[in-house]
Design goal:
Layout lengths: L3 H20 L17 H13 L5 H10 L23 H13 L8 H12 L9
């Protein structure tokens, strides 16, 4: 089975499975306006550990980076929300390592990442003139 078509036949089920894993949280009966908290601190730390063991590749690595180093670009974010400014010279891997170190010391591992990570990012990377939590 070394033909290009055979390789695609083997790859397609893997791609479909990873799409289902990523889309699973979207398959709910919640109204479109409902806010989901995402993973907890403990869940994110577990995902990031699996990603580390896998060599930093795969769905776990993508989820770890997505939730561990979010962009400060939410259009609908209230003005009072924590803001952060990442230095251009700092790599995503370095930022992620710093955030994960802070999360390991988080007082409530069951807290939603969406409520904890923005405050961590604002403390680690404050913007000039912006209030930090």
């Amino acid at each position: 089975m070394s033909t290009p078509i055979a390789r695609h036949i083997l790859i397609l089920p893997l791609a479909a499975a990873s799409s289902l894993v990523l889309a699973a949280p979207l398959l709910t009966t919640e109204p479109a306006t409902a806010v989901r908290a995402g993973p907890t601190v403990a869940q994110l730390l577990a995902v990031c550990e699996r990603a580390r063991i896998a060599g930093g590749v795969g769905v776990d690595a993508a989820m770890c980076e997505w939730y561990g180093v979010p962009c400060d670009c939410a259009v609908k974010a209230p003005e009072a929300a924590p803001r952060w400014c990442l230095p251009e010279a700092e790599s995503t891997d370095t930022v992620l390592a710093k955030v994960l170190a802070q999360l390991r010391r988080a007082p409530n591992p069951q807290a939603p990442v969406a409520a904890v990570v923005p405050a961590v990012m604002a403390r680690l990377y404050p913007c000039a003139g912006a209030p930090t939590p």
